[in-house]
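Quick one: structure tokens for this chain, please?
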Amino acid sequence: MVAGLAPFAPGDCGRLVVKVGSALLVDEDGTLKRDWLASLVADIADRRARGQAIVVVSSGAIALGARRLGLARGGRASLEDAQAAAATGQILLAKAWSELLATQGLVAAQMLVTLGDLEDRRRFLNAAATLERLIGLGAVPVLNENDSVATEEIRFGDNDRLAARVAQAAAADGVLLLSNIDGLYTADPRQDAAATLIAHVDNVDSALAGVRIGDSAAMGSGGMGAKIAAARIAAASGIPLAIAQGAGMHPLAGLEATARCTLFAAAAGSGARKAWLAGRLTSAGRLVIDAGAVMALRDGKSLLAAGVREISGKFARGDVVDIMSENGEVVARGLASYDAADALAIAGRRNAEQAAVLGYAPRSAIVHRDHLVLL
């Protein structure tokens, strides 16, 4: 795969998720950049005419609502202010998208989601079904986190990672994060004149060696750290992701002309369930395993009780658990075959001992390989 826009050309990318940040949509005084949004909508209409389905993840509700309510710090002085601003601003944001898409003969469809909607498997599948139907009907889904009900503990917190998760649900072929920066640089270009753009990333972790990442987001809640986290989620799902400058008019047309961006290549695609597991941001518990078990997982084997050293969390059978090495690295994620109490009772024990401890025939593994994904 080559650097640039290739995966997002209409002929190569049938379905694209486009994330729009607050700084692009909303001026510092809290007013909507309507002319800019109209130019983006025109680009979307052009892509649609050329056969590309577009799903939008749009920030901006809190910034718009804060101005309408007269809230300090852009509505982010407290969780309560952010929730109130989101509730007020979302109406304004949806109205703008609906009106401008209608001028291009397109129908907007609003979806507000929470972390739980995409972390719970059944709700994730419901969201996926809704997106599929909307796309099939020719609508343009416009999604945002439901910040009016999200809490500090249970929320995405940024629309970059939300866009990557939406791409999974929408079965998208690519993700484009439109930002106020061209992509990932070797250092913050605002502070280091020698910083250079990294055009292509095959492996996120190796590419970050020696890179100094700033994480500021003047109006929104993201930053480069959130974008890299989104790239990891997308890559694990077999979906390429690009970060590109979106501040100019007609940002999609501009990107198509210049191909200036950072493109994170997709990893080899995994099954839908494993992709969902890899993209999760929460888990019900943690299993710490020894070095031999880590090697076994990387060889494609299941996690056996004998390799488990520590267990934490209150999880039930079927819940998602993180699997960690003894040095604290999260190496895998999977669905527990036991609840926490039974898993703790047999941790470190061989199969031959487990029946006597449990009082019933043990299952083949603590986490079976068919329900496990390496991270």
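The radius of gyration is 22 Å.
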